[in-house]
């Protein structure tokens, strides 16, 4: 797909990292499969990955750890 942010390039398959924060809770999820723009670096997740990511972060939040770096599972 064409990048929606810069409209200069087609996105390519890659991985990205996303940071979540809620009060004291911080999590960085790495190696998330995504479409990445080679020009501006914007990344796009599909619905399946997004749902999985929210579930993963929800579990981490429920377990009560505050500062987590984890690969996407
Ligand atoms: Zn772009």
The number of domains is 1
- What is the CATH C-level name? Alpha Beta
- Sheet with most strands: 4 strands, mixed
What is the element string, with H for helices and E for strands? EEEHE
Question: What would your notes on this structure say?
Answer:
It is a single chain. It is built from one helix and four strands. The chain is of the alpha+beta class and 73 residues long. The protein has a single domain (12-71), classed as Ubiquitin-like (UB roll) (Roll). Strands 1, 2, 3 and 4 form a four-stranded mixed beta sheet that branches. Strand 2 (25-36) and strand 3 (43-44) form a beta hairpin. It starts with 11 loop residues before the first strand and ends with a strand. Bound molecules: zinc ion. Zinc ion (ZN) binds next to loops.
Name the descriptors.
alpha+beta, 41% strand, single chain, 4 strands, 23% helix, binds zinc ion
Give a topology summary.
Blueprint: E1 12-22, E2 25-36, E3 43-44, H1 47-63, E4 67-71
Parallel strand pairs: 2-4
Antiparallel strand pairs: 1-2, 2-3
The structure holds zinc ion.
